[in-house]
Amino acid sequence: MRSRIPTVALVLIIVACGPPKTPTAATSSGSSTGFFTNGDVRLSYRLDVPERSSPVGAVVFGHGSGQQTKDSCRFLADGFLSRGFATLCFDKRGVGHTSGTFVFVGARDSIPVFDDLASDMAAGVAFLRTRPEINPNRIGLAGVSQAGWIMPIAAQKSRPAFMVLMVGPTVSVGIEGFYSDIVEFSSTPIEEGYKQLPSFKGFHGFDPKPVLEAINVPGLWLLGGDDRSIPTPATVEILDQLIASGKPYSRVVFPGFGHDLFRAPYWPEIDRWLAKTLP
Predict the structure, then answer these.
(1) 112: which residues sit within 8 A by CB, 6+ positions away?
(2) What is the tally of structural domains in the chain?
(3) N or C end of the chain, less CB within 10 A?
(4) Has residue 1 been placed in a domain?
(5) Cα separations (Å) of 183 from 1, 57, 64?
(6) pLDDT one-digit tens code per residue, 159-200
(7) CATH number for the domain that contains residue 151
(8) Are 72 and 48 in contact (CB under 8 A)?
(9) Is residue 33 in a domain?
(10) Is residue 28 one of the residues assigned to a domain?
(11) pLDDT per residue over 212-260, tens digit each?
């Protein structure tokens, strides 16, 4: 997840894959494209709506690190679409047909940049709530890696029905970078990265824990037991503390999997959790 090499961009490649004044209208089923806005930023989207006679739930997808487009989320979006959810994917700021400036995020600029990216997701939720084919009370958020930092902020801004966070960290950006520098691009055992975490004395940047303490949006974390990008044990420790305090969070760790969960059996876990979470 380091800015020098956008790991999640590589993961998504492996697993996936003048503007109009108003958004393109969607039909009762099928795909539509257009733009929604967040202030002066125009976000280029693709909206897919399953064939249903009544308003459906929907999912807005956040991005991992790197220059992600509306196609980057398809490996997750297609699964939600097949389960009856509409899916909203969009080009990241400064990427594809979306305006604004793309930024490779580091600890020093993570707080303002993540706030901008989260406000884009929240604008996507607001856009979906204007659509007659969408049930405004069943809109959730989903995403991979860096999106795990962004989604809690977006949830604070938009009050979605749920969050699904794949390999999303709960540690600070500084802690993740420290761990990643030790093990991600080396043969160093991940246990050595875990062992060195207490010695971190650097700049933390964005820390998601206070946001996760402040919101009450149900969240499911899907994590790799051998992740060399985020420190899974530290992430789990924070989640377990939050769960013990009464927060509506759940987590599943897939032993033997790293930062790419493509082949992990995560859909049965999502299905079971959604069945318990959504009314």
Answers:
(1) none
(2) 1
(3) C
(4) no
(5) 12, 39, 19
(6) 999 999 999 999 999 999 999 999 999 999 999 999 999 999
(7) 3.40.50.1820
(8) no
(9) yes
(10) yes
(11) 999 999 999 999 999 999 999 999 999 999 999 999 999 999 999 999 9
